[in-house]
Design brief:
The structure holds 2 protein chains of 2 kinds.
Chain A: E1 2-7, E2 10-15, E3 27-32, E4 35-46, H1 52-62, E5 66-71, H2 76-84, E6 87-98, E7 101-103, E8 116-119, H3 122-129, E9 136-142, E10 145-150, H4 151-154, E11 159-162, H5 169-182, E12 186-191, E13 214-217, H6 227-230, H7 232-242, H8 247-264, H9 269-278, H10 283-298, H11 310-316, E14 321-326, H12 332-351, E15 358-363, H13 371-384, E16 386-392, H14 400-405, E17 408-411, H15 417-426, H16 431-438, E18 445-450, E19 458-462, H17 476-487
Parallel strand pairs in A: 11-16, 11-17, 12-14, 12-15, 13-14, 15-16
Antiparallel strand pairs in A: 1-2, 2-6, 3-4, 3-8, 4-6, 6-7, 9-10, 9-19, 17-18, 18-19
Helix pairs in contact in A: 7-8, 7-12, 8-9, 8-10, 9-10, 15-16
Chain B: H1 8-14, H2 16-26, E1 33-36, H3 39-47, E2 52-53, E3 64-66, E4 76-88, E5 92-104, E6 110-123, H4 127-131, H5 143-169, E7 174-178, E8 182-184, H6 191-202, E9 206-211, E10 214-215, H7 218-224, E11 234-237, H8 239-245, E12 249-251, E13 253-259, E14 267-272, H9 278-288, E15 291-292, E16 295-296, H10 297-306, H11 310-322, E17 326-328, H12 330-338
Parallel strand pairs in B: 1-17, 2-10, 4-7, 7-9
Antiparallel strand pairs in B: 1-4, 3-11, 4-5, 5-6, 8-12, 9-14, 11-13, 13-14, 15-16
Helix pairs in contact in B: 5-6
The chains are: A alpha/beta, B alpha+beta.
Chain lengths: 488, 346
């Protein structure tokens, strides 16, 4: 391979068609005089070889009726074939490796003719992408070598996992959850499809190592809370954001809350309904509040006799635990109520320092997080100790500002140009890298950007987990096959 | 009649000695640093190619033959070669020659055989050794003239070898040569063309030679000979005109102006002396081979396949580099020394 040109941070490298196969995202080291330039392959094209158009046209026009052979004493034909098919490797300069460190501030270019270009050894990629920390999480392979990130790089950070469906987002999220739990972290998962439940089992049916550290709460079943545990502020948030209750109605609700507390000494849903029915207020406000409370009651999430305390539950969790909130059986509105409750409670508990910081994995977050929460989570809550990992297949549903603050982004395949444009604008690497690499990623491969890879974008083939990940789409014909075999 | 194809191995064997000569020349104390030939120089040479201009005397009245396309199926074989100077130094020049044989069967299927390229390193010292029995002393004013002459000679050697090969291997075909059936003392071994034509005759092959480098002003000719009423295709016999115009040449055939299609130039076509009815021969050609701008398609293909492409030149440079010969562009040194720092070539 030979360097042909450099435009901005893009290198054009001429390559022989018989060179080792390169993949998008692979790294090349260009060595010259003891220094090394690191460049990442983003595309491969045909080189603009002189006269190739004439040659191609001539062959095209005669291929149907001309049978050709040649007496080629110097075997130039094979050389010509190689030259005609010469490749142009498009690569992005990532920096100069000096004393084992990748430097972006050093202006140095290797010789176009003397430099030696080769595939970067995986050990160098591993070394340069290593983030600070000692808790390694083996996430997969890159250029034939294993790639680990550190749990510390996820700590205190905002992480986004995105890509179109069935590309392996949830698989990666589960891998992170399992490893964080193994390293002693507390992780709360908003599990919209009920697929994290399987992490307690190995593929062979045995119990997994983290099965005893996995706690599943299903709203309306083993996760029901009292209004007193919820508190007025959280209830007002639920009414305001989930049920879009006007301010005048909220004021009346607060009045009713205090009356019930004063009269009954304890707040209950039934007491609230009675109070609102009896106390003097505008009839339309009364109707509005009563219909909302009936809707809340029907969710069976709030329970007057319930004694579940999230704070107690979280405090009791030992070293390393995953709290799975199984939202798969909850209605869309119910999901929003539960999430509103959880975030509101977490926020107040962390502010009081009554619980330690935790990771929050939000699967399909765009389906239940209200817009204002995005900013809140990534700015305020992050500082008090909620470290979100958002998983979404709709990148445009997450505001720009969130991407700009993201510390780590794992991008799986996207083919839709508008999604790619959005990601290209928002992510931490140049738009061309995102567009060229992401569009062609096969399933289970992702472009990793950010702190976790020491800001060296790498393409990782995620490893498999020996656990039941249950993220696969249920298919009709598989079900039909099972049904038929059962019938036989 | 469907002609059986010559085997590739047979063709290879035929050119083995020529290849051996080429290989020997490259071992011949070759310069390790040589300069490419600037494309401007090659262009000038192309423009300077010898062109023959004819003048008609009033008292000569050439015969005109109407050509009727003859649909009887006949195989056509066309031969063309090309040459290029790849690199040169103060001592010698590297020449590449290449040829092509196009064989169009009666079922219109075309077989193309590219022969070469063969590379020769030619110096004034090894020139005689390389040419052997065909050597003739030449006078050249400077080394560039010598290099250009060497290029011509090696191209002609290959061309005659290929012509001889097709004359021997094919039977009952119409063979098209590029050039003419004229010989002079200046060209290498004039007797070879005679041998080739003899072999063609023996094997039942007819021959027509098309020349691109003889320009005949068709408009003047049409006016002078009152050809306005003649619709192409037709032939005008210019043999006597040629004999009057040029001395020191020997014609091995009759010379015609072939005006084969409307709005296209006329070309010089030579037919061997033994051909009794040249218009019939051209009729067979017109009936069996499409004409493109009045020129036979098979000959165009032969020209096309034998021409050196940019890719060929790059590849030969690669080969020479593998032989440790450094190929340098002379302009780069000149630019470096004389051009302003940001300047284009002036």
């Amino acid at each position: 391979m030979k360097i042909l040109a450099k435009n901005g941070d893009t290198l054009e490298i001429l390559a022989n068609p018989e060179e080792e196969i390169l993949e998008r995202g692979d790294y090349l080291t260009i060595e010259d005089g003891g220094k090394t330039l690191l460049a990442q392959v983003i595309d491969i094209e045909y080189a603009d070889v002189p006269g190739v158009l004439e040659d191609a046209l001539r062959e095209l026009s005669s291929e149907d009726f001309v049978d050709s052979s040649s007496i080629d004493p110097y075997s130039l034909g094979s050389v010509i074939a190689n030259i005609r098919d010469a490749r142009l490797v498009i690569a992005k300069v990532r920096g100069v490796v000096m004393n084992g460190e990748l430097r972006n501030d050093v202006l140095w270019l290797p010789s176009r003719f003397r430099s030696k270009i080769s595939k970067t050894p995986p050990s160098l990629i591993m070394e340069l992408s290593k983030s600070i920390g000692r808790r390694n999480i083996l996430i997969g392979e890159c250029m034939g070598g294993w790639i680990s990130i550190t749990a510390e790089a996820l700590d205190g950070a905002l992480t986004i996992i995105t890509g179109k469906k069935e590309m392996g987002k949830s698989h990666l999220a589960k891998m992170l959850v399992v490893n964080l739990v193994e390293y002693g972290a507390k992780v709360m998962v908003l599990d919209i499809n009920g697929e994290y439940v399987g992490l307690s089992r190995k593929i062979d049916g045995g119990e997994s190592e983290i099965s005893r550290k996995l706690f599943i709460l299903t709203p309306g079943e083993n996760f029901r809370v009292s209004l007193s545990e919820t508190g007025l502020r959280t209830m007002l948030d639920i009414l305001k954001y989930v049920y879009e209750t006007p301010t005048a109605s909220l004021r009346e609700f607060s009045r009713a809350w205090y009356i019930v507390e004063k009269l009954n000494g304890k707040i209950s849903l039934r007491g609230l309904v009675e109070a609102i029915s009896k106390i003097q207020m505008n009839e339309s406000i009364r109707d509005a509040l009563l219909s909302r409370l009936q809707s809340i009651e029907s969710l069976e999430f709030f329970n007057d006799s319930g004694d579940f305390s999230l704070q107690e539950f979280l405090s009791k969790l030992s070293y390393g635990a995953a709290l799975i909130i199984d939202l798969s059986k909850t209605s869309p509105q119910g999901r929003r109520v539960v999430v509103e409750y959880l975030l509101s409670k977490l926020s107040s508990m962390l502010k009081d320092e009554s619980i330690p910081p935790l990771f929050l994995v939000a699967e399909e977050a765009h389906l239940y997080l209200r817009e204002t929460y995005w900013d809140d989570l990534v700015t305020r809550m992050r500082h008090i100790g909620v470290f979100p990992i958002f998983v979404t297949n709709q990148p445009d549903m997450i505001p720009d500002s969130v991407y700009r603050q993201a510390d780590n982004i794992f991008i799986f395949n996207f083919t839709n140009d508008s999604d790619l444009d959005y990601l290209a604008k928002a992510s931490r690497v140049d738009a061309e890298t995102v567009k060229k690499i992401v569009k062609n990623l096969p399933p289970r491969r992702c472009l990793v950007i950010g702190k976790v890879v020491n800001d060296l974008p790498i393409v990782v083939k995620t490893r498999s987990l020996p656990l039941v990940t249950m993220g696969e789409t249920k298919l009709y014909f598989n079900v039909e096959k099972t049904y038929l075999s059962l019938r036989d | 009649m469907i002609q059986s194809q010559p085997q590739l191995q047979l063709v290879e064997d035929y050119f083995k000695a020529f290849y051996e000569l080429s290989r020997q020349s490259l071992k011949d104390n070759i310069d390790l640093k040589m300069y490419t030939i600037p494309s401007e120089d090659l262009m000038i040479e192309y423009l300077d190619e010898s062109r023959t201009n004819l003048t008609l005397d009033d008292y000569i009245s050439p015969s005109i033959y109407k050509v009727n396309p003859i649909k009887d199926k006949k195989e056509i074989v066309a031969v063309d070669t090309s040459s290029i100077r790849i690199a040169e130094s103060s001592r010698g020049v590297i020449i590449a020659v290449k040829g092509a044989v196009i064989h169009k069967r009666t079922n219109k299927k075309i077989k193309c055989t590219v022969i070469g390229p063969f590379l020769f390193y030619v110096t004034k010292k090894n020139f005689r050794k390389l040419l052997g029995e065909h050597y003739k002393p030449i006078y050249s004013r400077d080394r560039y003239e010598f290099y250009r002459y060497s290029q011509k000679i090696f191209a002609e050697i290959l061309e005659r070898k290929i012509q001889k090969y097709v004359a021997e291997i094919f039977k009952n075909t119409l063979i098209l040569f590029d050039g003419s059936l004229t010989v002079s003392d200046r060209v290498y071994s004039p007797s070879i063309l005679e041998e080739i034509l003899k072999k063609c005759l023996e094997n039942g092959n007819d021959v027509l030679a098309f020349s691109k480098t003889t320009s005949i002003d068709l408009e003047i000719l049409i006016k002078q000979l009152n050809l306005e009423n003649f619709k192409p295709p037709y032939l005008v016999d210019l043999t006597h005109v040629f004999l009057r115009n040029f001395s020191g040449i020997r014609l091995l055939g009759r010379v015609f102006l072939a005006h084969l299609t409307n709005r296209c130039p006329g070309y010089r076509v030579d037919a061997p002396l033994n051909v009794s009815d040249p218009s019939m021969l051209v009729g067979i050609l017109v009936g069996n081979d499409p004409l493109i701008y009045g020129y036979p398609e098979t000959l165009i293909l032969a020209h096309d396949y034998s021409t050196f492409t940019k890719m060929d030149v790059i590849t030969i440079h690669t080969l020479l580099r593998k032989m440790d010969i450094e190929i340098v562009s002379p302009t780069s040194t000149r630019d470096l020394l004389f051009n302003p720092i940001d300047g284009d070539v002036v």
